[in-house]
Specification:
CATH topology: Nucleotidyltransferase, domain 5
CATH class: Alpha Beta
Number of domains: 1
Shape: globular
Length: 133
């Protein structure tokens, strides 16, 4: 809310907005479709399209909150200067984002937890994480 208040105080308009990024607690497709967001009571819908429409066409990118948090840490937080990051989020559930060679690795939460225990697809990356083809 502070950012919204600052936005208004600076007499900014949507014309000044280059894009909006949103992280949601649930699985999200590449096109911004949320497949289910139990914590918020949301079913399946394309949040990217919906929000962009509400913002008069401003570009919107939607992703899983743990993945977005990992990317944020890599670019502006404790992960600056690192290309390989594992981010664990704790809230109403446990989430995780994995970045290998500067790219987010998309895995389900079941797989995220399981991959710390064993290997999958015969590919070993780092000490614990396995990437899927």
């Amino acid at each position: 809310m502070k950012n919204l208040e600052r936005f208004k105080e600076n007499n900014s308009s949507l014309d000044d907005v280059e894009g909006v990024g949103v992280g949601v607690p649930g699985p999200v497709g590449d096109d911004g479709t949320i497949y289910k967001c139990v914590n918020l009571g949301w079913g399946v819908f394309n949040a990217q399209e919906e929000l962009s429409g509400l913002l008069n066409g401003v570009k919107v990118k939607v992703g899983n909150d743990a993945n977005v948090a990992a990317l944020g840490e890599m670019y502006k937080g404790g992960g600056v200067g690192y290309n390989n990051i594992v981010m664990v989020t704790l809230g109403t559930g446990v989430g995780g984002g994995v970045i290998i060679d500067g790219k987010i690795i998309f895995i389900s939460m079941y797989e995220f937890g399981r991959d710390f225990q064993r290997y999958h697809s015969g590919k070993r990356i780092g000490k614990y994480i396995c990437q899927y083809n």
